[in-house]
Amino acid sequence: MHAWPASEVPALPGKGRDLQIHDTATQGKITLDPGPVARIYVCGITPYDATHIGHAATYNAFDLVQRVWLDTKRQVHYVQNVTDVDDPLLERALRDGHDWTELAERETALFREDMTALRILPPQQYIGAVEAIPGIVPLVERLRDAGAAYELDGDIYFSVESDPHFGGVSHLDAEAMRLLSAERGGDPDRPGKKNPLDPMLWMAARPGEPSWDGASLGPGRPGWHIECVAIALDHLGMGFDIQGGGSDLAFPHHEMGASHAQVLTGEFPMAKAYVHAGMVALNGEKMSKSKGNLVFVSALRRAGVDPAAIRLALLSHHYREDWEWTDAVLAEAEGRLARWRAAVSRPDGIPADALVEEVRAALADDLDAPAALAAVDRWVDAQNAADGDDTTAPGLVSRTVDALLGVAL
Questions:
Q1: Per-residue three-class SS string for the chain
Q2: Last residue of a domain, one of 277, 296, 324
Q3: Confidence band for 284, pLDDT divided at 50, 70 and 90
Q4: Fewer C-beta within 10 Å: the chain N or C terminus?
Q5: Does 243 lie in the same domain as 127?
Q6: pLDDT digits (tens, 9 = 90+) for 344-393
Q7: What's the pLDDT at 93?
């Protein structure tokens, strides 16, 4: 599966700062020092309703991570998956009378278009769950043969008790885990499971549903968590720098994935930092497919909204913050974009060297994009209030905003 084209990232004078970021597992900020190649895995979409503003906010956050690392003169090895077979996708295809593969391909193509428009830097590997199945089956077999998995009516389940570190990502109690498991794709009430929280690794073939050769597992398809584990281990290995996604993935997805990987390899941790973006609401409720209260990037673009304004709207909220999308949020972003473009269109201006360092410092401090925007706002206000004579300043500001914030002026 191919990703989308990368926009050019301008080089800035000097060198950026190492990233301090909030780690869900340690419940505080840590400083990451990845070495010459930074490694990041971000969980991708299930392609049946793409791309809503909640998606865009998440991928915008991890795009900032890439840009901070690139500014430190590192390379970035970024991997993202597509869950192109899963119950929600199959259910949507059945409901709407579509072939599930065509639905997945169409929504994935739309996601690529939206990511390109928003100037989100693409992953080096963009891997569908279906294409990863040949690598998933041996991992499930290894877990089963090691006694970390068991069979129940043909399905294979992972035993969470096989990982002594289970619970160390989300820090939830058993009851909270059980409630979230039921809400987020698990089956804690299924009779016969050793532990209600045990997640499925391999689902035996069901009538009318797609299945693949599972070798000794029998025909079926993989569970959700093992897909990302197989892809991450194959392309990044253990101990990569960031495992990222929305805050609703901390449990069960990232918790279970970490346990799968740690039992498979005997190493700990799977990732140095577990980083989670906040949820976006509309009309007072979390934006979600189940509620049908989605604002789509493609619809905004069709309505003539500049993708740069959409991106500025996303940047106006801290990535870990839960916030609400409103017409006022978009209008403020459109006004800011117009002011910034007018300020950098002048042939000269006030010096901007300090601004570069302010933006760097803000983003290195747990991706504080609102502080970075405020720094640019101050430069714009000063630019409008004075007659500067620095002919390089407008271009430097434009390159800084492009390189670090992903906004083309």
A1: CCCCCCCCCCCCCCCCCCCEEEECCCCEEEECCCCCEEEEEECCCCCCCCCEHHHHHHHHHHHHHHHHHHHCCCEEEEEEEECCCCHHHHHHHHHHCCCHHHHHHHHHHHHHHHHHHCCCCCCCEEEEHHHHHHHHHHHHHHHHHCCCEEEECCEEEECHHHCCCCCCCCCCCHHHHHHHHHHCCCCCCCCCCCCCCCCEEEEECCCCCCCECCHHHCCEEECHHHHHHHHHHHHCCCCEEEEEEEHHHHHHHHHHHHHHHHHHHCCCCCEEEEEEECCEEECCEECCCCCCCCCEHHHHHHCCCCHHHHHHHHHCCCCCCCEECCHHHHHHHHHHHHHHHHHHCCCCECCCHHHHHHHHHHHHECCCHHHHHHHHHHHHHHHHHCCCCECCHHHHHHHHHHHHHCCCC
A2: 277
A3: confident
A4: N
A5: yes
A6: 999 999 999 999 999 999 999 999 999 999 999 999 999 999 888 899 99
A7: 92
